[in-house]
């Protein structure tokens, strides 16, 4: 399973000497004379619908599974019934609770995307 590749979308003149403070992010261009808004060649790519992936692989993880966010045991129970699922534990869970949930998930044979490091 491989998703489509697309160029990095940055603000115009991102690499220019006088724009060193510009962060790597996308902002839609709105200036009336902006070359990137007009889609002139050489000014970088602009996000559009053509970069979208097909429905079969959209929202999938690199290993081909769907990531399902889990906060508690009830959600883990629900997520364990989905066959192509990989559990992603929420960052708000405590370490103790997360260790308990991991034990339950491993017992059920569920894939865990962000396991605790030992």
Indicate the topology.
Layout: E1 66-70, H1 73-79, E2 85-89, H2 95-108, E3 111-112
Parallel strand pairs: 1-2, 2-3
How does this model look, in words?
With 118 residues, the chain is of the alpha/beta class. It folds into two domains: 1-55, no CATH class; 66-112, no CATH class. 18% of the residues lie in helices and 10% in strands. It has two helices and three strands. A three-stranded parallel β-sheet has the order 1-2-3, with helices on one face.
- What's the story with the biggest beta sheet? 3 strands, parallel
Low-confidence stretches: none
Strand line-up of the largest beta sheet: 1-2-3
Overall body shape? elongated
User: Termini distance?
Assistant: 30 Å
Helix content: 10-25%
Question: What is the alpha-carbon Rg in Å?
Answer: 21 Å
**What is the domain tally?**
2
Structural class, by secondary structure, is alpha/beta
Strand composition percent: 5-15%
């Amino acid at each position: 399973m491989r998703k489509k590749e697309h160029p990095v979308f940055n603000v115009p003149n991102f690499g220019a000497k006088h724009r060193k403070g510009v962060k790597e992010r996308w902002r839609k261009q709105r200036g009336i004379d902006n070359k990137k808004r007009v889609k002139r060649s050489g000014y970088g790519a602009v996000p559009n619908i053509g970069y979208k992936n097909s429905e079969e692989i959209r929202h999938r993880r690199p290993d081909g599974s769907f990531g399902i966010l889990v906060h508690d045991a009830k959600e883990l129970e629900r997520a364990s019934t989905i066959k192509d699922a990989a559990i992603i534990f929420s960052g708000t869970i405590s370490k103790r609770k997360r260790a308990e949930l991991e034990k339950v998930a491993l017992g059920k044979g569920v894939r865990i995307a962000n396991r605790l490091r030992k």
